[in-house]
């Protein structure tokens, strides 16, 4: 049977309702974890359940807040017992289309990604035994696992359920998408000016490319450097490639107006701050991406670019 992105065509066609306007038609779904109503419902429940954290205060939804486009308003992620992490919480919007996961790309699939926060001592701080015991100690969970996977709770099925739910979190049908589909009044004149700057003089579209406005690659944009000092090695920790020192994955810009603060360290409070940062060419360092250089935007250019970024918010759907 013909394959698409490593998936069977049948699996792609069975991956749920049509994509929101602006997104790719097919939603990549692995053959060993097809989307099912039972699996999605189970994943949503686990996602919201604080019992899957060591101190009972955290859930996936605490950090990935649905009201904040499945991101978080904090500078960095909260941890157990009132501690904090070292990186900003990335949105889960359209992760179904992702090719690598986490800011540093250390996970290659959503199934790999979803377990790491549960088991990370600096995040939800559970053990594999504790995760499974929590699910098996709840009769409703046992019934849900039997319905979804035909067996009692197992750690790999916790991953499958959470991954299934995350794949349903999608956003499209933004003013930008409607404008591209032919609705000329969907963007204001200022937003249209910002769009031209985004894909032209501003060079934003070089990295924020494609339907999901990310190339899924890793770039050193200087955010991890202060006065020449490296604060976070980023992708280098995964690859040990010196060329990727201080490099981080390009995030999607969909729903960006709702996911402040910005950058992997939450160092930019507003979209205007982000525009200013890139307009001046980022923070200098030896490995700075060659596309980063001063742009020379006018005040009205900056306002237009920020307005366009806000026009990338659309309709968020989850659970299907």
Topology:
Blueprint: E1 3-4, E2 7-8, H1 9-13, H2 37-48, H3 60-63, H4 110-119, H5 128-136, H6 139-149, H7 155-167, E3 170-172, H8 175-180, H9 189-199, E4 218-219, E5 225-226, E6 229-230, H10 236-239, E7 248-249, H11 271-279, H12 299-310, E8 315-317
Antiparallel strand pairs: 1-2, 3-8, 4-7, 5-6
Helix pairs in contact: 2-6, 2-7, 4-7, 9-12, 11-12
How would you describe the overall organization of this protein?
The protein is 33% helix and 6% strand. The chain is built from twelve helices and eight strands. It folds into two domains: 33-168, Orthogonal Bundle (Cytochrome Bc1 Complex, Chain D, domain 2), CATH 1.10.760.10; 172-317, Cytochrome Bc1 Complex, Chain D, domain 2 (Orthogonal Bundle). The protein has a two-stranded antiparallel ribbon. It has a two-stranded antiparallel sheet with strand order 3-8. With 320 residues, it is mainly alpha-helical.
Helix content: 25-40%
Spans of at least 5 consecutive residues whose pLDDT stays below 50 are: 1-14
CATH-defined topology of the largest domain? Cytochrome Bc1 Complex, Chain D, domain 2
Mean pLDDT: 94
CATH architecture identity of the largest domain: Orthogonal Bundle
Count of DSSP-assigned helices:
12
- Extended strand count: 8
> How many domain regions?
2
Distance between the termini: 26 Å
Main beta sheet: 2 strands, antiparallel
- Shape by Cα distribution: globular
Beta percentage is: 5-15%
Radius of gyration: 20 Å
Mind telling me the CATH class of the largest domain?
Answer: Mainly Alpha
